[in-house]
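RECORD TYPE: protein structure
NAME: NAD(P)-binding protein
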Amino acid sequence: MASAQGKTVLATGAAGGLGKVIAETFLAAGANVVICDVNQQRISAVEEEWTRTYADRFLIKQTDVSDEAAVQELIDASVAKFGRLDVLVNNAAIMDDFSPAGDCSKELWDRVMAINLTGPFLTTKAAVKQIEKQKQAGGVIINIGSNASYMGFQSGAAYTVSKAGIMALTKNTAGFYADKGIYTMALLLGGLTGINIVDSFAKGMHMEMYQKVMANQSPFEPGKNDTPLESIAKYCLFLSQSDIAPVSNGSCVVFNKNWPVA
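PREDICTED:
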C-alpha cells in the first residue's frame, strides 16, 4: 500500500459509508485523519471504534459543510491538532429524489446545492488558503463526483446539476492552483452500495423520473455493477501521492465499473 505517513487528511461526510472507508484507508497508510459529518450518532460510533485502534491520530467534528464559519472552525481545529493540512477529500453529499425540473421544489434544490456544491466550494476555499501559508508547500484536493457529473440523465435535476458543478470546480481549481503546488482531481463514480446517500430516499422518490432513468440504461445489479468502496479509497490514496498528484491535476476520472455500459 502507498504511504501517507505524516500527512494530515480531511474527509467530509465520513462517519459512515464511502467516507469512512476512505478515512480508514489513509489511517492504515500512516496519515493523521480528520473527518466531519452531521450525524452525531454515527460520529459517536466511529469515535468509540477508532479510539481503540488509532489512538490520537484522528479528529472527528460535527460540521455542516454548507456553513462557512463551521468549515473554517473545522480547518482550524485540524491544524491546531496536527499542525497542517495536506489532503482534502470532498465526499459529503446527498441525493435528490429524482425530481425533474418541473417537480423539484426549491427547498430540495437549495438543500442539494448547499451540501453537494457549496460545501465542496467552502472546504476547498478554506483548504487552499491554509495550504498556501504552510512552510512545506503543496496539497491535494480530491472531489467525489458521479456519473451524473457528465451524463445528464442519471438522477433528478438538482443532483445532476450539483455533480456537474463538481467537475467544473475541480478543473477551475486545478487550473489556478497548480503552480502553487496544490493539485485537484475528481473521481466520477457509478453505482455504489453500502453508502449513506440512500438516506435521501426516506421520503420516497419521483417514480416516473426514476423509471425513465432506469429504462434508459443497463440494469444495476448490486454485487455485479457496484464499485467496491475499498477500491475507491485505494484510488484516493494513490492520487494523493506526490509523484501522481501533479500529473493527475485537473483529471476527472471515470471510476464506475463500466456502469452504465459505455
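COMMENT: The beta strands are 8-11, 32-37, 58-62, 87-90, 139-146, 182-189, 252-255.
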